[in-house]
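In response to the reviewer comment on reproducibility (Comment 2.3), we provide here a single inverse folding case reported in full, input and output, so that an independent group could reproduce the run without further information from us. The structure tokens appear first.
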């Protein structure tokens, strides 16, 4: 990723969750969030898309559906390189992954998205970190590492319903609570 590609506010999005698709916020919601943020910044924003090589198709699909500037940062070869990129970001919105924790730990304003896992134990930690957990489904949270319950697929007939319950407006409100300044308010 070239530094010259970054302009304005930099919003990192971590779209993937490795192979556990039911833990992902729908891609079209990430696009909708980014479009809304782009409007708020008067198109003075770059989206930085983190992930690994296996998540490149998600990143490419996002780029094809997003009308603003987006950079594929999946070529980062290590957690340290990804952390260096996140350090330059004004915001990180991530599914419940290790990258979410890395962003929060280095002080990047971070919003974690939860459905199958409980934010009670796994929310990002820090003064500029928060989470969104909106579902009321009785099957959520279905992941429980303490009880060694780690399903490989969603048991709900409406797969990933708990992640679909997360609304873009809720993520925007959470982001506004952790960012520095008022740049997401569209003065």
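Designed residues, in position order:
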């Amino acid at each position: 990723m070239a530094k010259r590609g970054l302009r304005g506010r930099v919003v990192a999005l971590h779209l993937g969750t490795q192979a556990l698709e039911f833990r992902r916020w729908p891609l079209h919601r990430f696009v909708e969030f980014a479009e809304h943020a782009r409007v708020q910044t008067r198109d003075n924003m770059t989206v930085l898309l983190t992930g690994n090589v296996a998540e490149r198709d998600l990143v490419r699909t996002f780029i094809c559906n997003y009308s603003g500037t987006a950079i594929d940062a999946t070529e980062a070869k290590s957690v340290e390189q990804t952390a260096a990129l996140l350090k330059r970001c004004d915001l990180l919105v991530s599914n419940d992954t290790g990258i979410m924790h890395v962003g929060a730990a280095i002080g990047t304003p971070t919003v974690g998205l939860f459905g199958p896992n409980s934010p009670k134990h796994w929310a990002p930690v820090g003064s500029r970190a928060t989470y969104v957990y909106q579902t009321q489904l009785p099957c959520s949270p279905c992941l429980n590492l303490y009880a060694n319950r780690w399903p490989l697929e969603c048991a709900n007939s409406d797969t990933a319903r708990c992640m679909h319950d997360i609304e873009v407006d809720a993520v925007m409100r959470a982001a506004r609570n952790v960012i520095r300044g008022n740049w997401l308010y569209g003065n």
